[in-house]
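Aggregate trends can hide what the representation actually does to any particular protein. In the encoding step, the backbone of a single protein was reduced to a row of integers, each denoting a local shape. The record that follows shows the chain in one-letter code together with its fold in token form.

***
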Amino acid sequence: MVRRFLALPLLAALFALLAPHTAQAASGGGCRNTYDVGVCVSYSSTYKRVSGDFYLNSNTWDSCTAKLYIRVNGTWHYKYLVVLDHIGRYPEGHVPVSGSGSAYTKVELYDCAGRFQYQAFSPTLYYP
């Protein structure tokens, strides 16, 4: 019985070590809140890519759709259009990168008639 109680903390520590972790920005990056959304950017040295996503924290503007873009070294990469059907996190978009540079994420929000409402940006990320 004592062995079982000792094994549980060891198993918990092992799972914590093996669990996937969120990619961290080399410098800068992270998330920024603007109006109803938190827009994020990160860099993965393992996958050699920049990732962007966003969180809908509330919907006071009654937005219906959002477009996600990632700008890497001055070039825009359109990733997706999504229907805003829940409060919370929306999918990541990815852009493969090599070398070094800068990047940030932009989210544009639209009303149900397709009219532009506002845009929000992540902080700028500087990767190796």
Observations:
- The chain has one domain: 22-127.
- Confidence is low (pLDDT under 50) at residues 1-25.
- Residues 22-127 form a domain with the Immunoglobulin-like fold (CATH 2.60.40.2550).
- The first helix runs from residue 2 to 18.
